[in-house]
Amino acid sequence: MTTNAVHWFPAYIGLGSNLNGPARQLESAFDRLAEIPKTRLLCQSSLYRSAPFGGVEQPNFVNAAAVLLTRLPAVDLLRELQRIEKQCGRKPGKVRWGPRVLDLDLLVYSDQRIDDPGLIVPHPGIAERNFVLLPLQEIAPGLSVPGLGLVKRIRANLNEPEISCIG
User: Fold this and answer.
1) Number of domains in the chain
2) In this structure, are residues 111 and 117 in contact, taking their beta carbons and an 8 Å threshold?
3) Catalytic residue numbers?
4) Is the distance from CB of 104 to CB of 95 less than 8 angstroms?
5) Rounded Cα–Cα distance for residues 145 and 106 (Å)
6) Residue 2 lies in a domain
7) Contact (CB, 8 A) for 36 and 98
8) Among candidate residues 122, 132, 119, 123, the one with its CA nearest the CA of residue 158
9) Where residue 4 falls among pLDDT bands split at 50, 70, 90?
């Protein structure tokens, strides 16, 4: 007997913006995440204000996280995230960690560890960024990041400045 079981995978997305009304950009991005084919938006965090990462002079960021449930493979989900970024006006950056209208990062995809050209999951640097971990902890405090451990424990070991919740 064969089954046509449909597999759904939890995916955790980091969102960030510091241009063109950052809070508005993230609210719009949540709506667009909910429209990804074969995907459901399960939960979204509050919005958090954080200082820019990487030393480039620019406005503060607004960051958030979302939990999706998807039937898409990780690489296809990443393509959808990049499509949304383009739709929202993101242009290829000339400066690493520079200002951006919208940044959508695939942070964690199920329990998978992926190291392919163009896609590394869990997202590199996740354990060093409070602006990623705090929103993620809000919506998934029991999440175990493959190879790193529980989000709340990773965050407890982080010596980065606190960020503020803005709603």
Assistant:
1) 1
2) no
3) 90, 100, 103, 105
4) no
5) 12
6) no
7) no
8) 132
9) low
